[in-house]
Amino acid sequence: MRCKTTWRLRAAGTGSGAGGGRRLGWRWGSPWRRLVPAAGGSFGSPRAAAPPGRGTRPEILPAESRSLPRGCVRLMEETAAGRGQPRQRAARPRGSRGRGTAARRGSTARGDATDGHPTDGAPRAVVPRARAESTPVPRTLSARSRATGGLRLREVLSQLSLGRQDVSEASGLVNHVVSHLIQAVRGRDGSFSSISRLGAGSYYEHVKISEPNEFDIMLVMPVTRLQLDECDGTGAYYYLSFKRSPKEKYMNKFLDEDGKLSADKMLQELRRIIKEEVKHIKIDVEVTVKRKKPGSPAITLQIKKPPAEISVDIILALEVQQSWPPSTQDGLNIECWLGRKVRREFRHKPIYLVAKQNKKEKLLRGNTWRLSFSHIEKAMLNNHGSIKTCCESNGVKCCRKDCLKLLKYLLERLKMKHAKELEKFCSYHVKTAFFHSCVTWPSDTDWQYENLEHCFQKYLEYFLRCLQDSQLPHFFIPQYNLLSLDDKASNDFLSRQINYQLNNGFPVFHQA
């Protein structure tokens, strides 16, 4: 609160007249932030009126012996403890900051679904509550904080950073292979002549850890006149059909008997072309197409150049230039973090639909498509500060991405130890919790670089609350819950494992 107030403090039997008093002028939040009597005077006496003179060091009054408003006492105690320093004027945040955001950050969101696989009639999701205000580092950290801080998380991060030479070689190989395939696919019978490339996933979001051995490439295909019909209650999966006869006549061969656009037919055709073309890539490495995983939207290439082995997921995505579906209306609540203007710009971007099978369908026909927001997620991660210069060369560095990398690494290590129990979890759960945390703590000062241990702890505890409640709403589709009560045993298992690591200094980080 930044307001100016003048208090009239009265002491019985002092000043002029019964109950008289003298005015003590002070300003809540002023640069000196102290209540100070004149030299030789006592608080509430006629001599206590003058503020400290220029060049004099004011005394700090003992709060316990005075009858003051509670806020004044707290302010004096903070000052006496060395915390009453002048506040720095913050740089102008990006976009406009709406009122009432603290309430929205703790509000409920509707949802039902399971980990990547929605269910019908599941209970509505509730966003786990967290303190929405700026959270300063406590002067005395808890036992958990001491364990986290003692680990030296910076050393762990240094082990996760990618080597420049490795990145250069890996990205060069991937670019060569993918460029050849795109050119070959475009030159075929016209079905995919309009595709373009869009990098997605952790490598292009600059949060890849350990090795540059996995890449996600979206082959984007613009399609017009599409009708989207929800196929379940999650708001994430859709049947696609054409409102009128498609402009692209070659699309007719991908329609099923009900006139719906078949994801299976399109993927099979693209997969066939890619399998033929990898044989003609002129490069001194082995490139193969991995066997198809049931329900996966990706065509996975394996690039082998001993001792390295690189996996490239090629994902077919339809680009649709139309309004976002109603299920997304209450999602992407970034006004308090990135601003209203940025949210408005994001929602004017096209939507993408990937060929993903809805496993909860009674009859699997391979004609469902799932909404994808990879392009928005990448934009948010690469421009993540509430102030535009955050983490730029001329700006202040934050620890947001470092926290995300650490939790991704923690989940990765735990999955290596408990593959069966944790098979339902993936890095997208961690990333979704990260976006919600950025909204809960929107200011760059909440993620100061030097406070990594504290910031990682509060992000981790937010994720733990999601696991304990089995509630993690999709960031763009709030009614779509990425965790499910049906998988509560798995959620509780991961929660116990993370709690153990948190309370014992993360021994899993030290294990080979």
From TrEMBL:
**What InterPro entries does this protein's entry cite?**
Mab-21-like_nuc_Trfase, Mab-21_HhH/H2TH-like, MAB21L/cGLR
Which molecular function term from Gene Ontology is one that the record holds?
Answer: molecular condensate scaffold activity
What is one cellular component GO term in this UniProt entry? Answer: cytosol
Q: Name one GO biological process term.
A: defense response to virus
Q: Where is the Mab-21-like nucleotidyltransferase domain?
A: 203-383
- Region named Disordered: 37-65, 77-146
Entry superkingdom: Eukaryota
Could you tell me which residue ranges the Mab-21-like HhH/H2TH-like domain spans? 399-499
SMART domains recorded: Mab-21
State the coiled-coil residue ranges. none
Q: Where is the composition biased (Low complexity)?
A: 99-111
Enumerate the PANTHER family for this protein: CELL FATE DETERMINING PROTEIN MAB21-RELATED (PTHR10656), CYCLIC GMP-AMP SYNTHASE (PTHR10656:SF35)
Task: Return the similarity comment.
Answer: Belongs to the mab-21 family.
Record protein name field: Cyclic GMP-AMP synthase
